[in-house]
Design goal:
The chain has 501 residues and is an alpha+beta fold. Helices cover 43% and strands 16% of the residues. A hairpin with a 5-residue loop joins β5 (160-161) and β6 (167-168). It is extended and about 105 Å long.
């Protein structure tokens, strides 16, 4: 830029004036750009006896109230933005090139290492802790159980001391921190960058076999990624509370490729059912169907809806519109495709206790075009539903008596085992297999399990129909029917034993 200015002066004998960038209301970047190119604010460079009056014809370039002045400002700012982007690209390229060489580029030093001369150096005591964490995860197979085990042993996260004397870390591991630690390739001597891993310049503190085994366990326990859901996956999220005031959190389990959803009390997310025997774990589908049935019954009472809305301050002429919306929501609650969205809109709060279920609906949601027309605190519909609880292991079943009780869905596991029993019996009778041992090999189960399974092929037809319709007692599970029940041959005796008389 200096050479260009000098050539311009030598050729035309003009004065080049670097005026203050602040006259353009420019950013510091523009000012830095001017200085880097040899110009200082308020410096006048004169040649051939020219004076500052020679710049008067260019005064409009300094005036940002004119189009030419704004153009000049935009040019300066564009150069500043260009330089900023070039610097950013160079820094990113430098980081990527350094990581490809296996260099540690800074950040929080992971447990097991210390930083010395900008390199990772193994700390023997911490490295042993890392190996213990990986070893215990392989034995327990669950991050939740691993966290409980580490807490009991008093193992804490890495403590860091900063230059100003402040400290961080030294706290019990969270589940998220354990997932990050278990999947950090630094421990096998590698550096990760944007999905790729490179051989690092630091020492590995974990053997490859242990690392690969842990990664396989993490992948097997991870939820399967499916297409995006068209409606809310857990429409009652944040709205269900137990008798202790704990919020029930959506959870799920995956077994044999099938996903089972639950609502669980908050304490069960981080602790076990033994520590909180009264905590709730309810099948999500059953709870949602139950709430949808009760909500539909409540929305079918126009008198109660009108009274609540009028008490909340809604004008009488708008009540008919609210009742029409209630009818539409009631229809949506009865359809599988629209049930989730309708529950998310109309449910205000659900309270669970061992003896009753309280359903609180938002009557204000019936006026979406004018949500402020009614007081949201007062415009609620409340219903208490008596219930009793049946436990199946840690899982709970809600049994509601009365006309509004929701029919339960068929137990897919129980039906699958009944079908398998008939398939195994047909294979033995038809001669497709010659022994129970061969049949067990074909089915991929043990001989003992086949022997326990075969009596299900002789279940009374009425019992099979009841199971297919979901009318069996909640405690009648596949495990109980196969493992603990000595099934009689007489159909009448079967019905009495299984409680289907």
């Amino acid at each position: 830029m200096r050479k260009l200015a000098r050539r311009w002066i030598e050729r035309f004998g003009l004065v080049v004036h670097a005026w203050p960038a602040t006259r353009f209301n420019a950013t510091d970047d523009a000012l830095v750009l001017l200085r880097r190119n040899g110009f200082e604010p308020d410096v006048v460079v004169s040649q051939h006896g020219a004076d500052s009056h020679a710049l008067d014809p260019l005064a409009h370039l300094r005036n940002t109230t004119t189009s030419m002045g704004r153009l000049t400002l935009n040019i300066l700012l564009s150069f500043a933005q260009f330089e900023r982007e070039v610097i950013g690209e160079r820094v990113r390229d430098k980081i990527a090139a350094s990581k490809k060489k296996g260099m540690w580029m800074g950040g929080l030093t992971p447990l097991g290492y210390a930083t010395k001369d900008r390199k990772l150096v193994a700390v023997p005591e911490e490295a042993e802790t890392v190996r213990l964490i990986f070893r215990r995860y392989r034995e327990l197979g669950s991050v939740r159980l691993l966290k409980q085990d580490l807490d009991q042993q008093g193992i804490r996260s890495k403590q860091r001391v900063y230059g100003n004397g402040s400290r961080a870390g030294g706290q019990p591991f969270s589940r998220g921190a354990l997932y990050a630690l278990l999947s950090n390739p630094v421990y096998i001597g590698e550096i990760a960058h944007k999905g790729a891993r490179y051989r690092g310049q630091h020492e590995a503190i974990l053997d490859r076999q242990t690392w690969d085994s842990v990664q396989d366990q993490l992948r097997d326990g991870a939820p399967e990624q499916r297409g995006r859901a068209t409606g809310p996956r857990s429409p009652l999220i944040g709205k269900v509370f137990d008798e202790a005031g704990h919020r029930l959190t959506p959870s799920h389990a995956t077994k044999a490729g099938r996903r089972y959803r639950y609502y669980v009390s908050r304490p069960l997310v981080t602790e076990t059912a033994k520590q909180h025997p009264g905590a709730w774990r309810i099948p999500a589908t059953q709870l949602e169907h139950l709430i949808a049935t009760e909500a539909a019954a409540m929305l079918a009472e126009p008198g109660a809806i009108a009274a609540v809305l009028e008490n909340a301050g809604l004008e009488p002429e708008k009540v008919s519109a609210a009742l029409a919306i209630a009818d539409r929501l009631r229809d949506d609650l009865g359809r599988d495709a629209a049930r989730g969205e309708a529950l998310a809109v109309v449910v205000n709060r659900i309270e669970l206790s061992p003896i009753r279920l309280r359903v609180i609906l938002s009557a204000a949601a019936l006026m979406p075009a004018n949500p402020d027309a009614a007081d949201a605190q007062e415009a609620v519909l409340i219903r208490d539903v008596p219930l009793r609880i049946k436990r199946r292991g840690v899982e709970m079943r809600l049994i509601i008596e009365g006309l509004s009780a929701v029919p339960r869905n068929a137990d897919p596991v129980l039906l699958k085992e009944i079908r398998r029993a008939h398939r195994c019996f047909e294979a033995l009778v038809s001669g497709q297999v010659r022994s129970v041992a061969e049949l067990a090999t074909v089915e991929g189960i043990s001989d003992r399990y086949v022997s326990s399974l075969l009596p299900l092929a002789f279940l009374a037809p009425d019992i099979v129909e009841a199971i297919a319709a979901g009318r069996q007692p909640p405690e009648l599970t596949a495990h109980r029917l196969i493992r603990t029940v000595d099934l009689p041959i007489a159909w009448t005796a079967q019905k009495q034993l299984l409680g289907l008389v």
